[in-house]
Write a structure and sequence with these properties.
heterodimer, A: about 325 residues, alpha+beta, Phosphorylase Kinase, domain 1, Aminoglycoside 3'-phosphotransferase, Chain: A, domain 2, 5-stranded antiparallel sheet, 3-stranded antiparallel sheet, 10 helices, B: about 325 residues, 6-stranded antiparallel sheet, about 20% strand
């Protein structure tokens, strides 16, 4: 064995990345760069000569297309301009909101975002905060009708479920019954989602992965909402179920989700048909999470997804697919 | 191609699980059906292996983090402890009886070891005083067993060289904090000198130790069986230094001091500390903390803040000053 083993992901050298940022962004020298976290993507802390801090996200190779990155950076700046507290993307010297960079494993992209101060809301969630975040999302969903991106990004719920079926089957091959069940569940949910129309469940640009840890509470008590990596046009009800499901996943009191929904509906009341579809979107979120884990596990490991327990999912997905009435 | 098309160098890479699994299966003779998947990226990378209905874990060290001798020391130490019923992970040997293997990666050769899967939840999820006490007892036993462990090659843990070598990295990390920069510079001179003096005197008992016991390095099952995990940093060191790893992790994670007191009480039921060991506790606590900070500054760009559970530079600024004052180091 003399040939180098293939790699699926690399951590770019922070100094080299810092030099690249210094060349491409109008920041005061010296520019310091250090690795902050490795999750689904890599995030670096950047500090310029004024002491101003930024977060630099470097997307994994092949994880997002250039259009996806362009959409996200444009979207957060749209929201920032509308007064929503989000980490806006900082323009590079050429005016672009992101830049390509090549890693050993292939083409990647990076963007510099304004630093989001505060403490993770997930560390100390409370009902009042959940209600406020619900209102934030209600206003947000009303505002996005004015977002006119240069490039489109649609969340393909049904297609996504069909794509995760294969990695899910592979990951659960050692568990009798699970691979066949997940294949059926993916297809059944995909078909049910394809039948949902705009009148029943309105769509618009969404955050795509909102959970307790994607909001920071600032010193003045207000919130800043982070990490729009999964953003795109989707059902608003799907967005709400992302939050509710994530709370159930980490075992947060149901009162948090209820307060969030109440706050949301005070800004954007949901229709009866939209409410009736909530179990479908809930089941879809759960299965997409598990499928996303199966598809990405060998680049990021179990930890960023909080060590999914396959026994727990086997039981839960069966119950929730049944509750959604699709199997 | 313009300058922006250059490939940026990587500080670390994640090896494809299937390719790694293939090599490991061949070398260890593991049965089908076989699957290897990435489990965790920490100081090193860990992969979950399912083979023939059993589960294992691959530890894949980062380049330069471990030598084959280091792997051998760890595996032999674990085997020694297991012989004496100490609850630690069970290492596997290759078909040829080797303690590990090497795989070539883009950044250089990396060491591999295999272990049987360990059930349980990490202690930090529910850190109780009763488990802390039992862990203290386990460490008392580990240290008492140390004299009977005869490694093929000694692995002394150096607390002096790493501080001197890595201090320039720490300087870069805190360059924007001039007060800390100056203070840490004084610590970086005083600490190695004080530690060298301790080593030279040779009065403090030492032997094979775990090397990095903290609240994330023990797994607890539902019926409260404990397994002490991750002997990556094991080697010969002062026993009292080992205890400071635990104590410092309690402080770093802002947990009740009772978790340290119970650990120590449990430890001393098996191996009471001598007066000379107790005398050196403040110095060893500074050594643990400052070496961690230096190690963080060295590894940060391969690991990141979050995976280090890094409490922040403000926290260190306060904590190191307090411990240095307690130890009367400056």
């Amino acid at each position: 064995m003399t040939k180098t083993l293939p790699i699926v992901h690399s951590i770019l050298d922070a100094n080299a990345l810092g030099e690249r940022i210094a060349r491409q962004y109008p920041l005061k020298a010296p520019v310091h760069c250090e690795l902050l976290t490795r999750g689904m993507n890599d995030v670096y802390l950047v500090r310029d000569g004024n002491g101003t801090e930024y977060a630099c996200r470097v997307w994994r190779a092949g994880f997002r297309t250039e259009d996806d990155v362009a959409y996200e950076t444009e979207f957060v700046n749209f929201l920032d301009a509308r007064g929503f507290a989000v980490p806006a993307a900082v323009p590079a010297g050429d005016g672009r909101l992101y830049a390509p960079v090549r890693g050993p494993e292939g083409q990647r992209y990076f963007a510099l975002f304004r630093w989001a101060p505060g403490k993770s809301y997930g560390d100390k969630p409370d009902v009042a905060g959940a209600r406020e975040l619900g209102r934030w999302f209600g206003r947000f969903h009303r505002a996005v009708k004015d977002f006119r991106p240069r490039r489109q990004r649609h969340v393909d719920l049904a297609g996504g479920l069909r794509r995760i079926a294969a990695p899910l089957q592979k990951m659960t091959a050692h568990r009798p019954g699970d691979p066949a069940f997940y294949a059926l569940a993916c297809e059944a949910l995909a078909r049910a989602l394809e039948k949902v129309d705009e009148a029943s469940a309105p769509t618009g640009a969404t955050h795509g992965d909102f959970h307790l840890y994607n909001a920071f509470r600032r010193d003045d008590g207000s919130f800043i909402v982070l990490d729009f990596d999964n953003c795109g046009v989707d059902r608003f009800a799907q967005e709400l179920n992302s939050f509710i499901w994530a709370n159930d996943y980490v075992g947060v009191d149901r009162g948090i989700s209820e307060a969030f929904l109440a706050g949301y509906e005070s800004e954007r009341p949901m229709g009866a048909r939209e409410k009736a579809l909530m179990p479908l979107f809930y089941a879809a979120k759960e299965l997409r999470f598990l499928g996303g884990f199966a598809a990405n596990v060998n680049a990021v490991g179990h930890t960023p997804l909080l060590n999914p327990d396959l026994d727990w999912f086997a039981q839960r997905v069966r119950a929730n697919v049944k509750a959604a009435g699709v199997l | 191609m313009d300058a922006h098309d250059d490939i940026l160098p990587a500080a670390h890479s994640i090896i494809d699980a299937e390719a790694l699994g293939h090599e490991v299966q061949r070398t260890y003779g593991l049965r089908d059906p076989f699957r290897c998947e990435l489990l965790h990226r920490g100081m090193n990378d860990f992969y979950l292996v399912r083979a023939g209905g059993e589960q294992f874990v691959i530890q894949l060290w980062r380049v330069g983090q471990r030598t084959p001798d280091g792997v051998e020391y760890e595996v032999e130490f674990l085997e020694h402890l297991l012989k004496h019923q100490i609850p630690v992970p069970v290492p596997l040997r290759t078909k040829d009886g080797a303690p590990g293997m090497r795989v070539p990666s883009p950044e250089g050769s990396r060491e591999v070891a295999m272990f049987r899967w360990v059930d349980g939840r990490v202690y930090s999820k529910n850190p109780t005083a009763s488990i802390a006490r039992r862990m203290g007892e386990i460490f008392g036993h580990i240290h008492r067993l140390s004299p009977s462990y005869k490694p093929k090659k000694d692995k002394p843990i150096d607390h002096v060289g790493p501080v001197r070598r890595t201090f320039p990295r720490l300087k870069a990390l805190v360059a924007h904090r001039p007060d800390d920069l100056a203070f840490y510079g004084r610590v970086a001179e005083a600490l190695p000198a004080a530690y060298e003096d301790v080593v030279k005197r040779g009065e403090v008992p030492n032997g094979a130790i775990h090397g990095d016991i903290h609240i994330h390095n023990a797994f607890i099952t539902k019926d409260e069986r404990i397994t002490i995990m991750d002997f990556d940093a094991c080697g010969r060191d002062h026993f009292a230094q080992e205890l400071m790893s635990w104590r410092w992790s309690i402080e770093k994670n802002n947990l009740p001091v009772a978790l340290w007191e119970e650990f120590l009480a449990g430890y001393e039921t098996i191996r009471p500390l001598s007066a000379i060991e107790k005398k050196h506790i403040p110095l060893f606590l500074v050594a643990k903390e400052f070496q961690y900070l230096c190690g963080f500054s060295l590894a940060i760009n391969a690991i990141g803040h979050v995976q280090f559970h890094f409490p922040g530079l403000d926290w260190f600024a306060r904590s190191v000053r307090k411990h240095v004052a307690d130890a009367k180091l400056l």
